[in-house]
């Protein structure tokens, strides 16, 4: 079974990997990574469908769950964690579940990914409902942990998606929406942290970022909901205000502080010339969309 999967086949162009120079290895890996972009391009329609459905769930108060094992699980946890500071969302909104729990982020947990019931237990613990979206991630496309989680989610009435790196993947059968990015055999046979992992990371970037754009977390191409939790992000927040409004750094700094470090509020105040209260009202009435708030003024 495994030998039929593209992710498990030997790459004919790297049979002499152990004899290549460091430079030759780097060039070969770069060439192979280029195939990932083209493979993802073939799946844009499927990716779009997932994004639209994820966004609809989030708009209705649902949550997005990534479930996976090993590298796939780690990438889901990573994307979920990065959504919090980037888009200033509640950690509950996007969550990553990995077979074996937090320990599995750094140490392999024996047998966890082979369990058909563990994901159900994990999702029950998080209070999964029919309003949520569960995206199962598995490079091979056959991980029991993911299959079990998707089966439970569908039984509950939640929306489901599958992200794999092989065509006609097993997990696709258990989801309403399937993304299958097949970039071919790995440089190092079976090491799916390479091309498969890169493909998964890029697709997850697209899903979370595009969904957040649809939720009003972005103005133009600026991270207007960024959490200014450290000095670097405070400076970035002020520069975002500058970029969005064309004011000086000094003026951006003033409005940033005067708006309780709320970037969106500062931008709307500057662009509309209104008070804190009026700008806050505009944002609330327009579901947090800066552009609509400015146009509505």
Automatic annotation (TrEMBL):
GO molecular function (one): carbohydrate derivative binding
Catalytic residues, chain numbering: 82 (proton donor), 113
Domain called SIS: residue spans: 54-217
Pathway noted in the entry: Amino-sugar metabolism; 1,6-anhydro-N-acetylmuramate degradation; Amino-sugar metabolism; N-acetylmuramate degradation; Cell wall biogenesis
InterPro entries: Etherase_MurQ, Glucokinase_regulatory_CS, MURQ/GCKR, Reg_chr_condens, SIS_dom, SIS_dom_sf
Domain of life according to the entry: Bacteria
UniProt keyword annotations, A-Z: Carbohydrate metabolism, Lyase
Keyword Protease: no
Reactions this protein catalyses: N-acetyl-D-muramate 6-phosphate + H2O = N-acetyl-D-glucosamine 6-phosphate + (R)-lactate
Enzyme Commission number(s) from the entry: 4.2.1.126
GO biological process, one term: peptidoglycan turnover
Subunit structure as annotated in this protein's UniProt entry: Homodimer.
Function: Specifically catalyzes the cleavage of the D-lactyl ether substituent of MurNAc 6-phosphate, producing GlcNAc 6-phosphate and D-lactate.
Family: Belongs to the GCKR-like family. MurNAc-6-P etherase subfamily.
Record-linked HAMAP family: MurQ
Note: A lyase-type mechanism (elimination/hydration) is suggested for the cleavage of the lactyl ether bond of MurNAc 6-phosphate, with the formation of an alpha,beta-unsaturated aldehyde intermediate with (E)-stereochemistry, followed by the syn addition of water to give product.
Protein name, entry field: N-acetylmuramic acid 6-phosphate etherase
Species of the source: Enterococcus phoeniculicola ATCC BAA-412
Lineage, broadest ranks: Bacteria, Bacillati, Bacillota, Bacilli, Lactobacillales
Gene: murQ
């Amino acid at each position: 079974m495994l030998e039929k999967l593209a992710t498990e086949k030997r790459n004919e162009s790297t049979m002499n990997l152990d004899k290549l120079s460091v430079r030759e290895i780097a060039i070969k890996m770069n060439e192979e990574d280029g195939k990932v972009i083209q493979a993802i391009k073939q799946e844009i329609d499927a990716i779009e469908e997932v994004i639209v459905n994820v966004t609809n769930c989030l708009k209705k108060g649902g949550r997005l769950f990534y479930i996976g094992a090993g590298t796939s699980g780690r990438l889901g946890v990573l994307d979920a964690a990065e959504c919090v500071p980037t888009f200033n969302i509640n950690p509950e909104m996007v969550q990553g579940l990995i077979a074996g729990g937090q320990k599995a982020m750094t140490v392999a947990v024996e047998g966890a990914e082979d369990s058909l019931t563990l994901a159900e237990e994990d999702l029950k613990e998080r209070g999964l409902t029919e309003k949520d979206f569960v995206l199962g991630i598995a490079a091979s496309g056959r991980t029991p942990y993911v299959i079990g989680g998707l089966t439970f989610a569908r039984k509950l009435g939640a929306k489901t998606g599958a992200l794999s790196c092989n065509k006609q993947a097993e997990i696709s059968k258990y989801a309403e929406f399937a993304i299958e990015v097949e970039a071919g055999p790995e440089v190092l046979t079976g090491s799916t942290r390479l091309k498969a992992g890169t493909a998964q990371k890029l697709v997850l970037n697209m899903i979370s970022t595009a969904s957040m754009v649809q939720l009003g977390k972005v103005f133009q191409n600026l991270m207007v909901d960024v959490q200014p939790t450290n000095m670097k992000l405070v400076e970035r927040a002020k520069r975002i205000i500058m970029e969005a409004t064309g004011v000086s750094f000094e003026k951006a700094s003033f409005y940033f502080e005067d708006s309780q470090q709320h970037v969106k509020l500062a931008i709307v105040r500057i662009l509309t010339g209104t008070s804190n209260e009026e700008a806050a009202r505009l944002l609330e009435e327009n579901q947090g969309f800066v552009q609509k708030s400015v146009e509505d003024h």
